[in-house]
Each structure stands twice: as structure tokens, then as C-alpha cells.
Design goal:
Elements (H helix, E strand, L loop, with lengths): L5 H19 L4 H5 L2 H21 L13 H13 L6 H25 L4 H4 L7
């Protein structure tokens, strides 16, 4: 069942992309591969992106450009969770280099159509 809070999920995706950009800034594929902390951090952010895409449901699949495959994003999350021991860091690096810029662009557009409610952008907002 799709989320009732699509703006939150869109924001979650963009926030995790920004974190990945920060964690990989200045790294090459080789230095990334040798930096276990960066690899772990990026994998976790990719899992969150996949989970947010799953929570969005397939209602947004047609709202993103054709070169962004949200079904594959959701499936990649399953690979990260269940087949982590067979995943080569070069695959993760290729996702970061080739797929995240397209995902970021698509979700920036969606974010303008689905802004976060003001209470969620308020520094004093406590959802608990």
C-alpha cells in the first residue's frame, strides 16, 4: 500500500542522496572500495532510498523520466539486504556514479510538486 506521506518519502530519498554525495566527495572508485566506512554508509543510504521508493509504491513509477527505473531501485534494496555478501563495491560505485544523478534530478522535480508540510520543516517539530 502506498504511503500517505509521499512528500516525506521524496524528501527521504533526496536527503540520502545528499548524504551519499557527501560520503563519496573526492573519492575515486578505488579509494571508495578501500574505505569500509564509506562503503557501509553508502550501502545504508541506498537501502533507505530503496525503502522510501518501496513506501511510495508504484504510483510514482510513471511520474519519473524513463531512464529512472523505480522498480529496479526497490529491487536493489532487496539485494543490499539479502545478498550483501555477493555484492561487489564496483557495483555500488556504478550506482553512485551513474544512477544517483538521474534519481536526484527526478526527485527534485517531484519535491517541488510535493513539498513537505511546514510542520515537518519546522526545527521545533517533534513527530513523537
Amino acid at each position: 500500500m502506498p504511503t500517505e506521506r509521499p512528500a516525506r518519502r521524496i524528501h527521504d530519498i533526496l536527503s540520502n542522496i545528499a548524504s551519499i554525495e557527501e560520503y563519496t566527495d573526492g573519492l575515486s572508485a578505488e579509494t571508495f572500495s578501500g574505505n569500509r566506512m564509506a562503503v557501509d554508509a553508502v550501502e545504508r543510504c541506498l537501502e533507505r532510498i530503496a525503502e522510501a521508493a518501496r513506501k511510495l509504491g508504484n504510483q510514482f513509477d510513471s511520474a519519473v523520466p524513463g531512464d529512472v527505473d523505480l522498480h529496479s531501485v526497490r529491487q536493489f534494496g532487496s539485494v543490499l539486504r539479502h545478498d550483501y555478501d555477493t555484492l561487489d563495491t564496483s557495483i555500488i560505485w556504478k550506482v553512485v556514479e551513474n544512477e544517483l544523478p538521474k534519481l536526484k534530478s527526478a526527485f527534485k522535480t517531484l519535491a517541488s510538486e510535493y513539498p513537505l508540510p511546514s510542520k515537518e520543516t519546522d526545527a521545533d517539530y517533534d513527530p513523537f
